Amino acid sequence: MKQGHNRNRRVKIAQETLQIVEQGHYVNNDGQKISLSEELSYAISHSRLYRPDDLNPQALANVVNEAGAVIEVSAESSLEAARRSG
Questions:
Q1: Confidence band, pLDDT 50/70/90 cuts, at residue 2
Q2: In angstroms, rounded to a whole number, what is the distance separating the alpha carbons of residues 33 and 28?
Q3: How far is CA 53 from CA 20, 34, 36, 63, in A?
Q4: How many C-beta atoms lie closer than 10 Å to residue 20's C-beta?
Q5: What pLDDT score was predicted for residue 12?
Q6: Would the pTM count as exceeding 0.85?
Q7: pLDDT over 90 for what percent of the chain?
Q8: How many CA atoms lie within 13 A of 35 on its CB side?
Q9: Do 25 and 35 touch, CB atoms closer than 8 A?
Q10: Quick count: other Cβ atoms within 10 Å of Cβ 83?
């Protein structure tokens, strides 16, 4: 029962997150509308897709990494990776 409850909670959070992204804003507990449009636009325009064949040392050597991001490939679900990373 508990596992089903946790799954339902995660589904609800995921649905709320998608709604916020689609709307570009959310309303906080004080009733204030918080816009995320600028941040979402920046995130989308600065996102990069790396396919498996792109993850070789030569290709990655040309990637500008000002933020010090780390690319890690593992055989696990997103939830498992999130749990492991803390």
A1: low
A2: 7
A3: 33, 39, 33, 14
A4: 15
A5: 93
A6: no
A7: 40
A8: 3
A9: yes
A10: 10
DSSP 32: -
Tokens of 76: 């696990």
Domain extents in the chain: 2-85
Residues written for the chain: 86
Count of beta carbons in the 10 Å neighbourhood of residue 5: 9
Check if the beta carbon of residue 71 is closer than 8 Å to that of residue 55: yes
* Torsions phi, psi for 27 (to 5 deg): -110, 125
Residue 36 CB burial class (10 angstroms; 0-12, 13-18, ≥19): middle
Parallel, antiparallel or unpaired: strands 33-35 and 25-27 = antiparallel
